[in-house]
Amino acid sequence: MLEDYRAGLTIDADHERADRAAERTLTMPTQVLWSTRDDLEDLYGDPLAIWRPWAPHVVGGGIDSGHHMAEDAPADLAASLIDLIASAIDGSSP
After folding, report:
1. CB-CB contact of 65 with 36 (8 Å)
2. What value, to the nearest 5°, has the Cα angle with vertex 34 and ends 21 and 24?
3. By the 8 A CB rule, do 81 and 75 touch?
4. What are the tens digits of pLDDT across the range 41-64?
5. Which pTM was predicted?
6. How far apart, in Å, are the Cα atoms of 8 and each of 1, 27, 55, 64, 93?
7. How many Cβ atoms from other residues are within 10 Å of residue 83's Cβ?
8. Coil, strand or helix: which one is 73?
């Protein structure tokens, strides 16, 4: 887990800057989910707006949970993931 934080502040940030400079985007179905009882939106703003330059067709939303979404709201998280997978299979939007 700590390696994830370390990478986010170092090599991941370098890769992100390189992707932005090269105007790379994600073409696959992309979903961004975040905990509504955490401070992500307060610190950074709308997560979908942040991701849209990299993933033009990004979908997602907040899930009523604390920092540990998978533990706090597993059913809501699973339903969101199932919707994304189902929409990718049938070509619809989640």
Report:
1. yes
2. 15
3. no
4. 999 999 999 999 889 989 999 999
5. 0.79
6. 11, 22, 19, 25, 30
7. 15
8. coil
